[in-house]
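User: Hi! I have a protein structure encoded as tokens and I'd like to know what sequence might fold into it. I'm fairly new to this, so please keep things simple.
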């Protein structure tokens, strides 16, 4: 990847700083949260009626800001200035089921507010802005759908993807009135950089007492379903030494693999057993089948590969010990994404201008930025999540951190409009 132009700090006195309207920013964020509101959270699934109503409102806000704006054929909402070269600012506005009000939405509203400031304050130069609310980042149909469409990474089979209600993507697009619309496309001659702001979704910033994070990398992800097959027997009459207990094998594997990750992972490695199935599933029957859904994440591909290499030998040893057979099905393999050092430096410099020392940190969660980083210099800013909570209606961030993050982000955009 071609790295972004290095920041020219000698130009700082020539850079007009964009000033955001904090009250307007928070008003838009709260209004967006009304679409699909559930208590203090939001239920806004991609391409459903509520999501499309929210997208129509975002379209209006972009147009009111003076941007040329549309909704494309996959559901991406975008607004742009008329410059031939543009910085892209984006995130997503769909949510997980009964999720939080800030996840993704904050980054979209940051983009709209910065664009308003850009238009109102008559920023000069030949670099403008393009603001995008990507469709279906959360994977209702297909993870990171909108950004993969934008970058040309989708194929036609994606329209066969099915959501939790049994609706295919093709059907959802037809219901939303998006069939036949052109799809927004990335152009390296036009789109110079990608910036995304997001809540952290974890506890690191809060625990470190930091008000802003600058993302260094987005963790890659590997996932498998591990299956052990044994024999169903009476749980009261079959001696332990004569069982082929698939459930016991699963439990043994989970413990051994966790120990392996602890010994061979990095300080940023995480692993998770997200689902367990035992059949026939009765208290008085030895399990004949056990399935375990396993994921590992790390910002280093080498570490991911090392952890993945442990699955087979551990599962094989466990299967032998419990007199069962085993099999593995690959679920997904997402490569880590490195952020651009030049863009990171601009966000760091902008934070320090506002008296804040940013924390450099990886992101354990996936974001549209990990797709964009494969195509264009990319960077992310984090603001703290209260209690580290996210993907839940309890998700929240301090309003002071939200508005500070927006002003720092605007400062970084100001500088990049002059320096790219």
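Assistant: Happy to help. Inverse folding works backwards from shape to sequence: for each of the 420 positions I chose a residue that suits the local structure. Here it is:
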């Amino acid at each position: 990847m071609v790295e972004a132009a290095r920041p020219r700090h000698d130009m700082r006195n020539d850079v007009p700083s964009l000033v955001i309207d904090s009250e307007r920013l928070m008003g838009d964020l709260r209004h967006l949260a009304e679409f699909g509101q559930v208590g203090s959270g939001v239920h806004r699934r991609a391409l459903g009626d509520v999501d499309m109503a929210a997208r129509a409102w975002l379209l209006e806000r972009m147009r009111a800001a003076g941007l040329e704006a549309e909704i494309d054929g996959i559901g991406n909402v975008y607004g742009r200035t008329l410059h031939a070269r543009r910085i892209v600012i984006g995130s997503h506005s769909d949510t997980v089921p009964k999720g939080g009000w800030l996840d993704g939405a904050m980054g979209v509203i940051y983009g709209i507010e910065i664009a308003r400031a850009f238009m109102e304050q008559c920023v000069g130069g030949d670099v403008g802005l393009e603001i995008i609310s990507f469709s279906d980042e959360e994977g209702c149909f297909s993870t990171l759908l909108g950004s993969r469409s934008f970058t040309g990474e989708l194929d036609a089979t994606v329209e066969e993807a099915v959501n939790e209600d049994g609706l295919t993507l093709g059907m959802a697009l037809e219901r939303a009135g998006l069939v036949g619309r052109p799809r927004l496309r990335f152009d390296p001659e036009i789109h110079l950089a990608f910036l995304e702001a997001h809540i952290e979704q974890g506890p690191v910033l809060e625990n470190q007492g930091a008000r802003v994070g600058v993302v260094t990398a987005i963790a890659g992800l590997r996932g498998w379903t591990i299956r052990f097959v044994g024999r169903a027997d009476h749980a009261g009459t079959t001696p332990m030494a004569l069982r082929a207990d698939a459930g016991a094998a699963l439990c043994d594997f989970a413990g051994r693999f966790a120990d392996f990750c602890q010994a061979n992972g990095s300080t940023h490695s995480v692993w998770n057993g997200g689902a367990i199935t035992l059949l026939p599933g009765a208290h008085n029957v030895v399990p004949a089948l056990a399935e375990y859904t396993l994921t590992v994440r790390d910002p280093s591909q080498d570490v991911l590969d090392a952890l993945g290499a442990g699955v087979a030998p551990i599962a094989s040893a466990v299967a032998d010990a419990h007199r069962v057979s085993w099999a593995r099905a690959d679920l997904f393999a997402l490569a880590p994404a490195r952020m651009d050092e030049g863009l990171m430096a601009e966000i760091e410099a902008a934070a320090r201008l506002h008296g804040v020392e940013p924390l450099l940190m990886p992101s354990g969660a996936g974001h549209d930025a990990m797709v964009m980083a494969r195509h264009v210099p990319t960077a992310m800013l984090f603001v703290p999540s209260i209690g580290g909570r996210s993907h839940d209606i309890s998700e929240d961030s301090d309003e002071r951190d939200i508005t500070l993050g927006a002003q720092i982000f605007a400062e970084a955009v100001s500088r990049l409009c002059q320096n790219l």
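A useful reference point when you look it over: The first helix runs from residue 22 to 32. Feel free to ask if any position seems puzzling.
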